[in-house]
Amino acid sequence: MNKLNAYKPIVVGTLPIEIDIPNSDVDIICEVSDFNQFHILVKKEFSKFEGFNFQIEESHYVAYFSIDGLPIEIYAENKPSQYQNGYLHMMIEYRLIQLLGADFKVRVINLKQQGHKTEPAFGKLLGLKNPYIDLLELERKTNDELFEMEVFRKQKP
Q: pLDDT by residue (tens digit) across 74-131?
């Protein structure tokens, strides 16, 4: 990750909040204003690894590869890393796990082991219609506001 330091990398996703399962990838987000310049660095440093692939879009850049069988995804936007959806999702997911307890965490992991992606697993447990968007809405709420919601009263440990 040192190679990415100029781009303010943050490891996000399931690993930092300990809901990863054996096939989980490592997600790294970065703040990038010049995707082409960023790609030059990423290609130089990571193209030697298995399965290296990338996408450059107008709004973001993504690179995929594996190191010793561990899947890695580098995602970059022209936005501070701590304001990117990957970071915001991780923060609300962590907060929900802290608020709702170990049983809730186990239920999330069980759904992931059954093939659900992380956000849909949270969505299924919380009755969210569009978990990718709805989790961002929940992230803005205080803990008291969360527990005022019926679905949270049912989940509270």
A: 999 999 999 999 999 999 999 999 999 999 999 999 999 999 999 999 999 999 999 9
Q: Are 53 and 64 in contact (CB under 8 A)?
A: yes
Residue 81: DSSP 8-state: G
Looking at the chain, the domain(s) classified CATH 3.30.460.10 span 2-79
Report residue 101 as tokens. 């307890």
Does residue 157 sit in helix, strand or coil?
coil
Coil vs helix vs strand at 72: strand
pTM for the full predicted model: 0.91
Across the beta sheet with 26-31, what order do the strands follow?
Answer: 10-12, 26-31, 70-77, 60-67, 50-56
According to DSSP, the residues that pair with 50 across neighbouring strands are 66
Architecture of domain 2-79: 2-Layer Sandwich (3.30)
Q: Are strands 70-77 and 26-31 parallel, antiparallel or unpaired?
A: parallel
Angle between helices 118-126 and 102-113 (to 10 degrees): 120
Euclidean distance between CA atoms 115 and 98, whole angstroms: 23
Q: Kindly give the pairing relationship between strand 50-56 and strand 60-67.
A: antiparallel
